[in-house]
Amino acid sequence: MYKRVLLKLSGESLSGEGGKGFSEKTLTYLVNEVKKIHQLNIKLGIVVGAGNIFRGKELKDFRIQMADQLGMLGTVINSLYLKNVFESNGLKSIVVSPIVNLPSVMPLKYDFIEQCFEAGYIVLFGGGTSNPLFTTDTAAALRAIEMNADILIKATKVDGIYDKDPKLFEDAKKYDNITFEQAIKEQIKVMDTEAFSICKKNNLSILIINFFKEGNLLKAVEGENIGTKVNY
Ligand SMILES: Nc1ncnc2c1ncn2[C@@H]1O[C@H](COP(=O)(O)OP(=O)(O)O)[C@@H](O)[C@H]1O
Ligand SMILES: O=c1ccn([C@@H]2O[C@H](COP(=O)(O)OP(=O)(O)O)[C@@H](O)[C@H]2O)c(=O)[nH]1
């Protein structure tokens, strides 16, 4: 079983697949899935995307650096939203972010987040990497290494990594394992090359799972053979 886990959730895990905003049904599902792993007493960090609010590239009339700042703020909104939902359901959590100065958001300090983990808090890392031109996959890789995670779990809308996009090709074949080198060389779109590269350099395995299949998150944390594992 993994003991220190960084979970990357897409914005769509708050809105429902393909949706915008927040869906009560999806949030209830999310809370139940997170509860199952939180009760195993693992140290849990979460990086959430903002696809349910803004993705920089979707704002066509904006300069990218401006659009991306809206995207990053979206991740802080989602983190605060999740904190509230978690706490109404008895899950203690804290939002940390280097990009905003708000009373409910704490600065990112390693000793402080370690104390939060020890006290059983889920740490929500908001604000992406703090830089435009990146995505929350890359933020997840950075924060995973900063919190000494033993796995980065990307919970998304496909069952893992395939030899081609399974949403476009019915005959796509799933990999159970793939090396960082292959993922980078084949330019696998399910995660950014930057994220693969940071994890490769720091020897941190990535597990891609389908968030929308009940029980998957628990299976992943317990080390069951699901999804696709990326390592050396
Ligand atoms: N080789 C591949 N294997 C798996 N998924 C792929 C592949 N190529 C493209 N994709 C697409 O990547 C998507 C997941 O990436 P992305 O939309 O960035 O996730 P998220 O929003 O969860 O961060 C999937 O919906 C899938 O259609
Ligand atoms: O380090 C980062 C992380 C995110 N973003 C912006 O925030 C948006 C939301 O993140 P992402 O697309 O990764 O969300 P997801 O698809 O996971 O919901 C991105 O499109 C970018 O515009 C950014 O500029 N820098």
From TrEMBL:
Location(s), subcellular: Cytoplasm
Q: What class of enzyme is it?
A: transferase
Q: Where does UMP bind?
A: 68, 129-136
Record keywords: Repeat included?
A: no
Instruction: Tell me what organism the protein belongs to.
Output: Petrotoga sibirica
Q: Which SUPFAM superfamilies match?
A: Carbamate kinase-like
The source's superkingdom equals Bacteria
Q: Enumerate the spans annotated as Aspartate/glutamate/uridylate kinase domain.
A: 3-210
Q: How is its activity regulated?
A: Allosterically activated by GTP. Inhibited by UTP.
Has the keyword Kinase been applied to this entry?
yes
Enumerate the residue ranges of region (Involved in allosteric activation by GTP): 16-21
Q: Which reaction does it catalyse?
A: UMP + ATP = UDP + ADP
Q: Where does ATP bind?
A: 8-11, 51, 55, 156, 162, 165
Name the Enzyme Commission number(s) assigned to this protein: 2.7.4.22
- Give the UniProt record's GO annotations in the biological process aspect: 'de novo' CTP biosynthetic process; UDP biosynthetic process
Protein name as annotated? Uridylate kinase
What family is this? Belongs to the UMP kinase family.
Q: What InterPro entries does the database record attribute to this sequence?
A: AceGlu_kinase-like_sf, Asp/Glu/Uridylate_kinase, Uridylate_kinase, Uridylate_kinase_bac
